[in-house]
Structure prediction request, 445 residues.
Amino acid sequence: MKIAILGGGISGTALARMLAADGHQVQVLEQAERAGGLCKSRRYGEFTFDEAGGHILFSKDQKVLDWQLARCGGEAGTVKTVRNTRIRWHDRWVPYPFENGVGHLTKDAIVDCLKGYIEAHVQRRLGVPCPTNFRDWILWRMGDGFARHFMVPYNEKIWKCDLATMSSGWVAGRVPEAPIEDILRSAIGIDTAGYTHQSVFWFPREGGFETLVRGTVQGGGFALRCGHSVRNVRRTGDHFAVDGEAFDLVVNTVPLPLIEPAFEGIPEAVRADIRALKPIALINLMIGVKLDEPLPDLSWIYLPFAEQGPTNRVTYFSNYSPNNAPAGHGSFLAEVTHRGELRPDREWLQNVVAALDRAGILRRDQVVLTEWCNNDFAYIDQNLEFSSRVGRVRAWFDQSGYITFGRFGRYEYHNSDQCVGRAMEVHQHIRAIAASGGPARPTFR
Ligand SMILES: Cc1cc2nc3c(=O)[nH]c(=O)nc-3n(C[C@H](O)[C@H](O)[C@H](O)COP(=O)(O)OP(=O)(O)OC[C@H]3O[C@@H](n4cnc5c(N)ncnc54)[C@H](O)[C@@H]3O)c2cc1C
Prediction:
């Protein structure tokens, strides 16, 4: 088949590689000057930075992890790191996840957290149902101590909204429940670990996270047309056309609100739903420092409090690979979310860096480089209407004969490994279409 894939991020390029290996004629149409999307990296002198905040290679799915590592040159082409993450909790460094680090708080805060956690645990045992909004979910799941001391300030900082206006649906499966024994152990000073599937991770030795996409494109056997912003997509009977060129199948991975105007035939109500799927944007500060001693052995840290500035997370980026910064230097990525309103200037950047200095993360006098990059589509606005809206949008696409997937191509809030996992599913689905041979196509979900 001749297949068009819209968007050359990891979703589009991974699928293209899989389809090309089956002998299909595949074209990836990408608006930017090169493939990569949110996985892109860039260089400033001898510094390499990721554009959309700190990215790591990890997966719960071994098949997907192996696929990703192979694209990055395997063990030799990657650096393996034991995750070491912290929360900058006032003047303390509290291990992450917060529940497992509770023993590192002040005594008063430990009591607040334990009391709330036990009360919440008992309430759940008594059958209090899972709340539908995120704020109440935090209280239901973790109690008011954990809520007050970390979960609410941190989440308000990242989501930039009242948490009662957010759905709780998206956290299921994302935030594993810490066993109460672990919380009690941690509270009396016995270390416990959480999120074990992420306890080690990999990062490309050279070229930043974008190496994953470059390795997917290289030898991929498909045509990649960059600088091509898709303007028109239509279906007539069993035929598809993209910007006037005929295809047997069209797969979209472009963020839906960006590609919606190009698609003919979408009903007005579905268009309105797509336009209402608002993203959360991300400013990523790329900071280079000259060091007189190595950076602490940290992977990334969370900054929950307003006095730490607008940054919600800092990645110790030169710890991911020694090639991310020149000798004698280190680098950080500082992530600041916004809802489209933020227009950084030099003064703003300096203020963010000054706040990181006050929070004890870096020393301002060591900073030799500060750049920034905006990503309009970073996180999904998980408001209370999101689930029903996106359900209607997916339902329309799934019966339309088009296939749409990807972080914002289907609004599934996936990491790159899950995008690759979904590409594997789409690949199987297209095999089923090819095998069916006729117009009665199986439906992708
Ligand atoms: C802050 C942050 C941290 C993350 N951390 C991790 C992590 O640690 N590990 C991990 O695996 N994942 C991580 N992710 C997720 C990861 O970045 C995404 O899952 C993945 O990059 C999404 O790929 P995609 O191809 O679905 O979408 P995108 O990368 O968004 O690709 C879509 C492509 O469509 C193109 N496009 C737009 N308009 C058009 C048009 N009109 N015509 C043609 N092309 C167009 C864009 O240029 C883009 O290249 C993180 C994401 C964020 C925001």
About this structure: The pocket of flavin-adenine dinucleotide is lined by residues 6-12, 29-32, 37-39, 52-53, 55-56, 229-230, 253-254, 258-259, 282, 335, 377-378, 406-409, 414-417, 419 (CB under 6 Å). The longest strand covers residues 367-380.
